[in-house]
Amino acid sequence: MLPFHKAVEGDFSAVNQLIIDQLHSDVDLVENIGHYLVEAGGKRLRPLLVLLTANALGYPNTGNKHLDLAAIIEFIHTATLLHDDVVDISSMRRGRLTANAKWGNAPSVLVGDFLYSRAFQMMVAIGNMDIMQILSDATNTISEGEVQQLVNAKDPSVSEANYLDVIYKKTGALFEAACETGAILSGANDTQRNALKRYGYHIGLAFQLVDDALDYEGNAAALGKNVGDDLAEGKPTLPLIYAMREGTSEQAEIIANAIRNGGIDQLESIVNIVRETGALQYTTDSAHEQADLAIAQLDHLPENPFTKAMIELAKFSIGRNY
What EC number(s) does the entry state (predicted)? Predict the structure, then answer.
């Protein structure tokens, strides 16, 4: 358990149990895949943000719906991962076989649908229309981001602005929703609600920027996935976009061809190029800027162990190697 988890350790354990309880199904395969995903662990930052936000604003004195909300966020996230791995033909996540590699594409997609629908069942039970609207909008935005990323695949002309739009939709939107819905549940005022929404937005971008940098400088054991996966899928992420923009015409063409063709035949050469052009540094600097913007939003919240943990979470998002 990471230090910022300890601030809400009891709630976090309760959410983990609630997730297991809510995976109940009369269909054994649903439970088998669901439990496989839960046992894989993961950082669970999105539900953690719900818990930290709610505790920072004093919600736990009035009920336990923050636990339900945290589980809902995790179910939505896990459903997107199941679908992502099928679309990306991924075989490894969190150091283990993906569900699609273990059971096949059809069960993975269908269990992803089950998790989405279970999340919305739980959402109705919370009974807050603002929360339902935000999470419905976020789910729709994530789907748009997935389609946009699919369109961008193997296209070396994708701009930095387009890339940032995609990572907001795919990653930032759910971080943003986790914080804003936690704020609503806790009766936050407009200033606090907006500050927490912006905190989630910036943390989400920082997290994805670091992920995309790690694809060219991490190692498979630490990452829990294969290094070079983005390149293999022809994804034009920021390290490649910047390297093509700042490198020589020859370097740009090597990267462009690799994006067009997919595969990792040129991985070593491209890793050298993104380092030589300063693309990795640019990407990590961008992540640091986002983390700083996130931390600045916490000035609008009371100072307590939970907001301090949110600062530590922001620092972790840019200092990690997995």
Answer: 2.5.1.90
How many C-beta atoms surround the C-beta of residue 283 within 10 A? 26
Q: How far is residue 71's CA from residue 239's CA, in Å, rounded to a whole number?
A: 33
What values do phi and psi take at 280, rounded to 5?
Answer: -65, -40
C-alpha–C-alpha distance, residues 180 and 318, integer Å:
22
Q: What is the pLDDT of residues 179-202, one digit of tens each?
A: 999 999 999 999 999 999 999 999
Residue 254 has pLDDT above 60, yes or no: yes
- 141 pLDDT more than 60: yes
Q: Indicate the pairing of strand 96-97 with strand 92-93.
A: antiparallel
Instruction: Answer yes or no: is pLDDT of 229 > 90.
Output: no
pTM, whole model, 2 decimals?
0.93
What 8-state DSSP symbol labels residue 228? T
- Of 122, 135, 131, 118, nearest in space to 186 by CA: 131
Instruction: Evaluate whether 212 touches 239 at the Cβ level (below 8 Å).
Output: yes
Length of the chain: 322
The structural domains of the chain, with segments of one domain joined by +, span 3-319
56 close to 302: Cβ distance less than 8 angstroms: yes
Least Cα distance to 306 among 167, 182, 132, 176 occurs for 182
| Continuous segment of H or E residues that includes residue 43 | none
Q: What's 264's DSSP letter?
A: S
Question: Confidence class of residue 62 from pLDDT cuts 50, 70 and 90?
Answer: low
Which amino acid belongs to residue 141?
T
- Angle (CA) 64 135 291, round 5°: 90
